[in-house]
Amino acid sequence: MYATDKIYVVLLRLINLDVILVVFMQYTDVFIEFWEQVKQSVEEERFAKLTMAKTIGKPNLKNIFVRPVYSDNGFMVLLKLRYRSRDTEDIEQKLTLEEAFPIIQKHLKTSFFSVLLFTTTKDVTFKINKKGAGSITEGLPTFTNITQAEMGDN
What is the pLDDT of residues 18-61, one digit of tens each? Predict the structure, then answer.
């Protein structure tokens, strides 16, 4: 391999990165706005649950749930990855909201098209359409009370 071959590969990777950034820009700003509503609901103690749904295709990962956990260490969330196959055990992690953010963000548009925020005052839905544009809609609340999550809950 010649030195010019290495430069070519690097340039090709940069070009691919630029394409990816353009695609993500269509919905990422809208998702940041949505995430601000998530953080505000936590601050105002209205956060009931967050669910990633509407999978792309039929992946083994079926849902991602984020539920509140109040502890002496402050507000935490229980992040649960639920799988379709009974052969794959669900994964649960107790995290801060900030630690959960990149996990949720990583699965946008790769595994899921929508994220639903349930609060005690409203439901907020973030969706990505087929063209990659994001949107936020609001509806009446599904939950009137907050149920604290515990490891092993369904």
Answer: 433 333 346 888 899 999 999 999 999 999 999 998 777 777 88
Query: What is the pTM for the complete model shown?
Result: 0.76
Residues 6+ apart with CB under 8 A from 131: 26
Tokens describing residue 60: 């083994």
Nearest to 118 by CA among 83, 97, 144, 100: 144
